[in-house]
Write a structure and sequence with these properties.
With about 60 residues, the chain is mainly α. The protein contains three helices and no strands. About 0% of the residues are buried.
């Protein structure tokens, strides 16, 4: 008989952020519109921001 093994989720790190209420509302509205989770929208917005940093900021951070 096969046994159920639930994999550990190591794909993310939990962080607490304090965001302005209007920003949360806008992100939640976008998530609802696109049928995505709030978290997925935040990740997409952050990825876009990091990928489009000013070149001098990229060099200073040395992460790209």
């Amino acid at each position: 008989m096969n046994k159920l093994k639930i994999p550990e989720n190591h794909s993310g790190v939990s962080k607490t952020l304090r965001l302005p209420e209007n920003m949360v509302d806008n992100i939640q509205n976008l998530a609802n519109l696109k049928n995505l989770s709030f978290n997925k929208v935040v990740i997409s917005l952050l990825e876009f921001s990091l990928n489009n940093l000013d070149e001098s900021d990229k060099k200073e951070l040395a992460i790209f």
